[in-house]
What does this fold into?
Amino acid sequence: MKTVQQQISSVFLALVVLLSTVSFTVDSHYCGGILVDASLFGHVETCAMAVQQQPSSSECDISKKDCCSDEQAVVEGQDNLKISFHKMDKDQQLFVAAFIHTYINLFFESQVDLNYYKNYTPPLLVWDIQVLEQTFLI
It folds into this structure.
């Protein structure tokens, strides 16, 4: 159960780091206030209203205002996640080294054998006290 929770939390944290560092752009095309097309990776397609004819004469032309508009939303990701180890001061380096040392030691069991009675021999039994007193555990 604990390993499943650790795997789920590690995948979740990896996704959080990935999504916080990714930057992307959303392009959208509006025609008359209505969203016609939106694109995440490429350019948006324009509607037929966006194609304008060039006037043949340049004198005294009154142009209609274009009803189409393009919007671009840029979402910038974080760029300050790369901290180098040599830019830390002495106390921070000591803390990181101590943390890594103690964290790695959590995964290993101690190999110390605490058998204090290895060389101890019990005394010889002269009389069996339970038989002599006739007291038996039932």
